[in-house]
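Curious: why this fold?
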Amino acid sequence: MGHSQAEKAASRERVLRIAARKVRTDGVGGLGVADVMKEAGLTHGGFYKHFASRDDLVTQAAAAALTEGSAKMERAARKNERDARAGLLDAYLSEQHRDTPATGCALVPLGAAAGRDGTDGDVHLKDAYERQVRAYLDLIAGLDEDAEGAEEARAEAVLTLSALVGAVLMSRAVADGDLSDEILETVNRRLKHRAGPRPAQA
């Protein structure tokens, strides 16, 4: 790759990284091309050297933000060597995750936009969102050592992921700090309680 091509690739990567952070904090509707380019140290006119349109940037930024979550979630789980599932719960349902959406899981801020995809816009997020949901479900199911078979592990993963995303969403949305903490702590405690020995199926 020539020097100019390498610089172009680096600039595009910088724009995409900034845009991915912004869609986590502001959602896809709050992503402004001028602001992204300015923060990247590039001119607004140079935008079309890297992306076909704003929708193109939004789609790629959202996909990048979603994909980055898998590695972070797996690292969080592996920090607790004795109980990887508990490690994942503690990291996801933490005050730090709640308070730093710019580096957090993109399933939380992008769910509404993905739900609207195909009905009121040209931003194609649904496929990227689904891929990430499936990746998280596979990861969580793989951590469930107590599950009685793959079907049970999958069901628990669906419940767990839904509770995780919903808890962080609500904890960020409420104004009362005590209620926000209660949501995170209660969901964490209840999910860990479910990880105990389960009764045999009839």
